[in-house]
Amino acid sequence: MAGDLVPRKITREQLERIIQRAAELQAGEMDTGEGMTEQELLKLGSDVGIPGRFLRQALYEEAAGGADLERGLVNRWVGPRMVLAHRVIPGDKGSLDQAVSAFMTEEEAMTPKRRLPDRTVWERQKGLLAEMKRGLSFEGKAYHLARAVDVSVQISSLETGYCHAELGADISNLRDSALAGAAALLGTGALGSVVLALIPGLFPIAFAPVLAAAGLAALAVRAHRRKAGRMQVALEQVLDRLERGEIRPRQQLAGPRASAFVRIASEIKKSVEDVAMTLRQPPGGTPPSNPTSTSRNPKTP
Q: Rounded to two decimals, what is the model's pTM?
C-alpha cells in the first residue's frame, strides 16, 4: 500500500538520534520546568519502557563522571590528580562491602582511614609487617593502590540484586612529585642558560640547557600519565574481580588466626624451598635417576 512505511535498516547513529529526539518530544509534553527529580525521571523511563535499573545506573555514572572531568592547564599538561572507575555489580550491598573490605585489607595491604556514611576511605598500611608484605611479594604483585594518598570505595544499592560500585584513587602525591621534578629540571636548565649567556663566546649555545631541561620535564610529565594509567587499570581490575565473584567476604574460621608475621614467614619459607628444589635439579632439567629402578635392571657386561 502507498501509505505503508518502506522497510529500511536504521544505523546505530540514527537510532541514538531518534531515541534522543523522541525523549525530547516526550519531555516537552511534561511540565518539567528547569529540570526534574529522580522520581520523575524514573516515572518517565517506565512510561517509555526503560527499566529502572538502567536509569539508576545512568544517574550514578552521570554523577561520577562529573568528578572525573578536571579542568585547567595543569591537568591537561601533567595529568589527573584523581582516577575513577565505576560500574554496576551484581550482588547486595552488605556482602559487597564485606568483600571489598577483606580484599583491601588482605590483598592490597591497606587500612580504613575514614568510614563515612556513604563510603569508606582506605589508606596505605604503615608499619614493618606491612612494608615486608609489600616488599616480599614473591608473586610479583605491584600494590598500585597503596601508592595513592587514599582510595575511596562507595557501594550504592540499585534494584534488588544489583549495586553501583565506585572506586576513586587520589594520586595528587604522584602528580605533585612529577610537577616538582619538572620544575627543578626547568629551573636548572634556565640557570645553566643564564650562565652560558654571560660567558663571552658561548651565547649561541646559551639556550641548549633550557631546551634539554624542557625535554626532560616533558618525560617526567609523561611518566605521571603512565602511573595514572596503571592506577586506572588497577581500579578496573578490582571491579572485574568483584563482578566475576572472585572477591568474596572473608570466612570466619574456627580457632585463632595466624598473625601477619607468621604468614610472612610461611611465604619466605615456601620461596626458599622452591629455590632449593630448583638448585637440586641437574643441568638441562633432567630429573635425577631413581636408584631403586636402576638396581632392578641387570648391568650389561
A: 0.62
